[in-house]
Amino acid sequence: MKGKWIFSSVLITIAAILSGCEPLLVLDPKGPQAERQAQDIMLSIGIMSFIVLAVFALLIFVLIKYRASKQSPDYEPPHMEGNIWVEAICVGIPVLIVAYLSFVSVQSNYIVEATPEKYEDQEPLVVYASSSNWKWHFSYPEEEIETVNYLYIPTNRPLEFKLYSYGPITSFWIPQLGGQKYAMSDMVTTLHLAADVPGEFVGRNANFSGQGFAENTFDVTAMSQKDFDDWVDEVKDTADPLTEEKFDELLEPGHLGRMTFTGTHLDFMPPPDHDHGSSDSEEGNEHQNHSEQDKDSDHSNH
Predict the structure, then answer these.
(1) What is the pTM of this model?
(2) What is the pLDDT of residues 165-207, one digit of tens each?
(3) Which CATH number fits domain 125-278: 2.60.40.420, 1.10.10.60, 3.10.20.740, 3.40.50.1360?
(4) In 3-state terms, the chain is what percent helix, strand and coil (to 5)?
């Protein structure tokens, strides 16, 4: 009776905990990159579930078939040779599973590292996403605006994020749009994403970076291209310019709310020179070179 009460209590506790859980964001994708990763996750869960069920079924079979029985004290079990087919199955199946998952993982890695499918012929929106303790700075070089702790993006258009950090290593992650990628202080990493539908998403730093790590989040709003252009025009008409002195203040450790500026800190504090994982297309390289030339000309003018 006591055992039944314990078992019932455990079931009730698990049900109560699961009922309060929010849906897993990684399994609610809103972009092609996240969709591919969600498929891989479900594939892995399916294969692992099959393995667990098969192992438990074999365990129950062995426990029943080879359970202890009453034998005479001088009983000696017969000598049995190994079965080559059983050994081949026990070794071969895990090898095949690992090989298949490795193939899928490598294939998916190339897909999510490239421009999202269906968007290869479009010009990407380039956003420089830099982190500092404990905030995110989003620079739009083409639009000449900058935001802090929030990100506006157009739907149905490729996004090219240039990631780096003004402090410890952080990890840029929007679960419903794609996987995480690290932002470091001595190099720029490139992350390709896209949003298929408008909506509100949550982004965060997925790498522990000190006492303010838990609140190192940002809001993401995906909207139509027209609404995005209207927002850019509104920012240019209403926001204050970002000065070097103001940006130095923003880099001080601490938490801030949402902030908006005209101009970007790229004009007076360019990102690291080393660019890792940039777009393989000639168009992307030309855009990057063009941006660097613009920065050089701005510095010379100053």
Answers:
(1) 0.78
(2) 998 999 999 999 999 999 999 899 999 999 999 999 999 999 9
(3) 2.60.40.420
(4) 45, 20, 35
